[in-house]
Amino acid sequence: MVAVEETEPRRAVMTTGPVAAAPLRLLDKALAGRDYLVGDALSIADIAVSETLWQLASSGFDLSGYPDLLRWYTAISER
User: Fold this and answer.
1) What region, left, alpha or beta, does residue 60 occupy, with left being phi > 0 and alpha being psi -120 to 50 degrees?
2) Which residues contact 30 (CB under 8 A, 6 or more apart)?
3) Alpha carbon of residue 12 to chain centroid
4) What is the pLDDT of residues 25-50, one digit of tens each?
5) DSSP 9-78
6) Is the dihedral of CA 73, 5, 23, 37 positive or negative?
7) What is the pTM of this model?
């Protein structure tokens, strides 16, 4: 992740986008047909990754290009 100050959310999205694309594609593929990252129940892995995605989404990062990841993130966020 690229560290930036909270006052610069748009710059954070622009800077993070290219860096985040490969790991997000990997997560999207791994979550295809799955409800959780590890096993059949919510785990610390789901919580940790969802927190990172929350930070990205809160800064304006568009997750719509990662449909399985977005589905998972939405479900985890609603818990």
Assistant:
1) left
2) 37
3) 15
4) 999 999 999 999 999 999 999 999 99
5) HHHHHHHHHHHHHHHHHHHHHHTTT-SSSSTTS--HHHHHHHHHHHHHHHTT---TT-HHHHHHHHHHHT
6) negative
7) 0.76
